[in-house]
Amino acid sequence: MLKKLTLAVLATVSTAVLADINVGVSVAATGPAASLGIPEKNTFSLLPTTIGGQKVNYIILDDATDPTAATKNIKKLISENKVDVVVGSSTTPSSLAMMDVAVENETPLISMAGSAIVVEPMDAKRHWVFKTAQNDAHMATALVQHMTDKNIQTVAFIGFADAYGEGWYKEFAKIAEARKLKIVASERYQRNDTSVTGQILKIMAAKPDAILVGGAGTPAALPQKALKEKGYKGLIYQTHGVANNDFLRVGGKDVEGAFLPVGPMVVAAQLANDNPVKKSALEYVTKYEAAYGKGSVSSFGGHAWDAGVLLNSAIPVALKKAKPGTVEFRRALRDALENTKNVAGAHGIFNLTPNDHQGFDQRARVMVTIENNTWKLLK
Prior knowledge:
By secondary structure, the protein is α/β, with parallel strands linked by helices.
């Protein structure tokens, strides 16, 4: 009888050890932000399928850059696929739409979107949310520094009429004011607009020394193309939301000379050998280009890779406290993510705290310009 009981206990332990970890993913593989979501989706094929001795399954859904679809995706992933964590989405509006579902189900959510509003200010909802893309405020500081170094006095802003554009304007305006930069015009447009002529004419009438485009992906090329068409001669800045080859392809010669802050991964090969992010950035670039071709890597795929980096660090810690498929494991995984320390990703070094669920410092940004249809590191 004792022998049978012992065997039964061993069988139970064995089942627990072999339990799969399910990672749900929602990305904008189609729609206006497809140039962000496609490299993110591709990157999940490069992530480890075993972590801490446990098999990891990635269940990937397309939200088509639609917050409503993103909400449906996270509900499906949690209720039907019984995921332990969700990674998504590619954009700020979709990430914000997913947050309520994540907190209701006590499921960690790792966003790949840029706006700081995804993780700030910290509250009961954001307690469950993390992000891998650099905060817009973090990048705006580098951008404003470059403007002041160039003796810019006046600047105009044109950005998306959504949470991404508003988040960027808010952070940029706050830093610009502190650095005595005067914002002389502010305009908005939709991601799927085909013309911004009216907005550009208003901006040019204000005669700004420089213009910041608060957009992401290929739709961010539209204002710059319009500015070039209308003969604008001042400096043009973009955000880190455009750091992929599709933006360069769509923008062509019209985006030459633009300045923007990016994660160091974008110019990994140009970094100094003593840069603390170079090794981890090159690891991702090498793996992605081996799978998808030379020159195919983008900043956005790096955010998906870094979600994998965080999970690779946190999952073994969580496994010591609970088994996958349980609320106890999800809670333990959330706690482990929040305590990530000195973990090198493609875009920077993660040091997360209860009040900082992004965790990057100045090592996660560099300034570049677009030169000869590629990114050139500014020394």
